[in-house]
Amino acid sequence: MRRILFLLVFGVTGTAILIGLGVWQVNRLAWKRDVVAEIERRIAADPVALPAHPDPDADKYLPVRVSGRIGDEELHVLVSIKRIGPGYRVIAPFETGTGRRILLDRGFVPSEEKDAARNVGEMTVTGNLHWPQEIDAYTPDTEFDANIWYARDVPAMAAALGAEPVLLIARSATGPDVTPLPVDTRGIPNDHLQYAITWFSLALIWAAMTVAFLWRPGARKTGQRQ
After folding, report:
1. What is the structure's pLDDT at 1?
2. Cross-strand pairs, 169
3. What pLDDT digit, counting tens, does each position of 14-45 carry?
4. Other CB atoms within 10 A of residue 210 CB
5. 3: buried, middle or exposed (CB in 10 Å: 19+, 13-18, 0-12)?
6. CA torsion, points 187, 192, 198, 203, in degrees to nearest 10?
7. 124 pairs with which residues across the strands?
8. Among 106, 178, 188, 222, which is most buried by a count of CB atoms within 10 Å?
9. Is 166 buried (19+), middle (13-18) or exposed (0-12) by CB count in 10 A?
10. Gyration radius (Cα) of the chain, Å
């Protein structure tokens, strides 16, 4: 009897813990959906003027419209676009009408257009401020001689171009030969549904195994002898 009681407590406790983890992931799923919806609303809001002192936290995704001049210097960030293939994000300096110099992510060009001439000069650009976190332990070092970057390292790029560490990602076209890659929420992970399904599945398996152990002939006989 003591063995059956132990199996029952062990099985019920384990099942309850796994169900609790599944419920927690369902709650996290709702929270993440609210966060993503808020970011999408922020991205799509009406553009404003460039803040005097942009903050990486408070002004992340802020829609901005600036007028000024695109410089002819470029930094190239290696990327791959689905159904298109490899290419580069073009990062250029942008000098505003007030004399500020920031970074402008103009968009995507195919690999063969990496070093092609692009239009520069006076322009009004609409986009979103962003400070992407793309660097990890596996990010290759920048190939400065070939002008190939493997992540948008805003501070390092700002130092290379003599600009403020502020990146404006264009959502308006900056030239016929560059495809804008606007900010969106596709890169924000939201795996909580899969996690919830996993925990609930484990809870079901745990409960089934508990029942199987309790209904084994040996377990019943042990309980009867005690």
Report:
1. 66
2. 105, 128
3. 999 999 999 999 998 888 888 888 889 999 89
4. 19
5. middle
6. 170
7. 67
8. 106
9. buried
10. 27
Burial of 133 from C-beta contacts in 10 A (0-12 / 13-18 / 19+): exposed
Structure-token pair, residue 6: 């132990």
- Taking Cα atoms as reference points, which of 126, 130, 129, 108 lies closest to residue 118? 108
pTM to 2 decimal places? 0.77
**pLDDT value of residue 165:** 97
Length of the chain in terms of residues written: 226
Cα-based distances in Å from 54 to 57, 58, 70, 175, 212: 9, 8, 20, 26, 61
Q: Which residues pair with 149 in a beta bridge?
A: 77
In what helix (H) or strand (E) does residue 192 lie, and over which residues does it extend? helix 192-214
Distance CA 126, CA 170 (A): 6
Q: Which two tokens stand for residue 51?
A: 């803040």
Report the C-alpha gap between 125 and 20 in whole angstroms: 49
- Residues 5, 7: Cα–Cα separation, whole Å: 5
Token pair, residue 96, equals: 């505003």
pLDDT tens profile 79-128:
998 888 999 999 999 999 999 999 999 999 999 999 999 999 999 999 99
Which amino acid, one-letter code, is at 206?
Answer: W
pLDDT, tens digit (0-9, with 9 covering 90-100), for 129-176: 999 999 999 999 999 999 999 999 999 999 999 999 999 999 999 998
Sign of CA dihedral 131, 134, 135, 139: negative
Look-up: residue for tokens 């992407």? 132
